[in-house]
Amino acid sequence: METYALLFAATLSAGTVLAIAALGLLINEKAGIVNLGAEGMMLCAAIAGYATVVHTGSDMLGFLAGMGAGAVLALFFGALVIGLNTNQYATGLALSLFGVGFSAFVGTGYVQAKLPERISYEVPYLADLPVIGTAVFRQHPMVYAAIIFTLALIWFLERTRAGLVLRAVGESPQSAHALGYPVRSIRLAAVVCGGALCGLAGAYISVIYTPLWVEGMIAGKGWIALALTTFATWRPARILLGAYLFGGVTMLQFHLQATGVEVPSQFLSMLPYVATIVVLALISRNPQWIRVNMPASLGKPFYPGA
Amino acid sequence: MWKLEARSAPSDFWRIASPLLALVLTVILGVLLFMALGKDPVKGLLVFFWEPIRSGYALGELVVKATPLLLIALGLALCFRSNVWNIGAEGQYVMGAVFAAGVALLAEKTSGAWFFVPVLLSGVIGGMCWAAITAWLRDRFHANEILVSLMLVYVAIMVLGFLVYGPWKDPLGYNFPQTKTFEAATQVPRLFKGSRVNIGVLLALAGVAAMWVFMFRTRAGWAQQIGGLAPAAARYAGFSSRRAIWLALLVSGACAGLAGALEVAGPIGQLTPYVPVGYGFAAIIVAFVGRLHPVGMVFSAILMSMFYIGGELAQSRLGLPKSLTGVFQGLLLFCLLACDVLMNYRLRWKTSQAMGGV
């Protein structure tokens, strides 16, 4: 039982990473922008956060550095895509390629660097509960923060005027523009928010989840987060659940390895990627369903007066 | 304030000038980066742009690295022109290498010199099979090809890892994760003595010619591109979008697979975990910088090859990490996308009065 509690705990942690990044990308996409640069932003944020913690010893500053790195790169992406009307796919791809190279370049000196001792967290009293305590209440605060943030985002998108405007910008930028909303500024703000959240996820990986720095360590999690927004048909609650599901798949491979299943480790490591492909195919099978849920102007540029 | 004013037609001047301007901007950013790192920028530039063309041998190495980039980019250009976003060429390249290695391992000491032909063909089939997965999922299930092809890169690298750590590991190889060195018969014939340049470069150039003819001189190639430019018009004309997806992905899979086969049966000579070096991703940049035009991509492939060689030299001579290559590649694509704005828009200075007081 204790093994499964630990597996569940690890699943929550792995899912949190994907959830934070995917929620950030959801904000982008609700405003009509696809940012394929998630992987690059997360990598740069991972090294920025890691280096900051190595030098300052403060996890909090590390998270802030990661968010900052993600936000700056997203701002750059936004300036090109929104300001200069460049192709969103190509620009996002450029950001990912740049991020892979740049993070490896900057991170060369940090491969062997040591973080200060990692502390373990627990919720007072609840952590002592049998099984559930281990499974749920011994997590880094970020795990709970991700859940609260999901609820907050649902409230923001469904119940606030600002959320409505954000969705309007993604559904019909022309109408939003006609109503006098600054479409491009709103899109830029959404992109920067998304970048900051991807950055937070990246820093969480290198500082808490792994915790170490290796070249290319995000290993496709940015792309899986992008796929998650589609899986979840652009609904925050489904993103959270989907993220836990994928966290579970990631953790399953380690569990299977530990229990000595006679399958080569490479095939187990494939699981998250193969699962992404399979789920993507199943969800996309019905294009009508995707089209109904997808922000109508996703990926389309908007230039007032053009 | 500066305003973008749409041109009635894309500017032919900027179509050519934009990549050059992007290169200049990248070089300027590179100089700034070298200065920030406390390295002599002149030395840095020499390493990237002079060393790779300084001698006959260096030129050979330049061609050796440009060949796979050009081959992969040719296929990708067809994809991008058809609005099929295959960004998993790296995976197709790896699978080409794996399939080629499978046949190469069958060779014996007595095998004839023709043995490299089935090796290369097997690589082509490997790349096509891998791309076909993406095509099938896109065609049958409408699955986004960007995500599927990219996920398959990771899967392909794991398959490669499984083979070289497991069943294909050289029993006499001191437990290194690699196959035995392939027999001489599998070696792709070289063109010159003392250089690693092989017939791969001729295949790539033939590919350039073939792609040019297909794109600009055949009805099928034209229909393929209409699907990318104006999907509604293509539907109206009765051009099948399903056919376009399959054709684009199979051709680019074949190109990437051939590139992978040429690498393992050429310069590398065995299958190792170090086969994937990012050519599949760099080729995306080659395709865009080369304007998705077969001839343009010859130049951009050479440029990108310079970046690779420059990165290696920067490591050995200037003590900088090899990943500098990736930084410059990413910067170049960024600069290009920004400069391309000038192709479709005119920059105009407008006073607030001229804009109607907004």
The helicity of chain A comes to over 70%
Largest sheet of chain A: none
Q: Please state the CA-atom Rg of chain B, rounded to the nearest Å.
A: 22 Å
Would you identify the regions of chain A where 5 or more consecutive residues have pLDDT less than 50? none
Q: What pattern of helices and strands is seen along the backbone of chain B?
A: EHHHHHHHHHHHHHHE
* Count of strand segments of chain B: 2
Number of strands of chain A: 0
CATH architecture of chain A: Orthogonal Bundle
Total of DSSP H or I helical runs spanning 4+ residues of chain A: 13
Helix content of chain B: 55-70%
Strand content of chain A: under 5%
What oligomeric state do the depicted chains represent? Answer: heterodimer
Tell me, rounded to a whole number, the average pLDDT of chain B. Answer: 91
Biggest pleated sheet of chain B: 2 strands, antiparallel
Shape, per Cα inertia axes of chain A: globular
Mean pLDDT of chain A: 91
Could you characterize what this model shows?
- The complex is a heterodimer of chains A (306) and B (358).
- Chain A is mainly alpha-helical and 306 residues long.
- Chain A is built from 13 helices and no strands.
- Chain A has helices spanning 2-30, 38-56, 59-83, 88-107, 132-136, 141-159, 161-171, 173-178, 183-209, 221-231, 236-258, 265-284, 287-293.
- Chain A is globular and about 60 Å long.
- The longest helix of chain B has 28 residues, at 241-268.
- Chain B has a two-stranded antiparallel sheet with strand order 1-2.
- With 358 residues, chain B is mostly helical.
- Chain B has 14 helices and 2 strands.
- In chain B, helix 4 crosses helix 10 and helix 5 (116-141) runs antiparallel to helix 10.
- Chains A and B meet through helix 4, helix 10 and helix 12 of A and helix 5, helix 6, helix 11 and helix 13 of B.
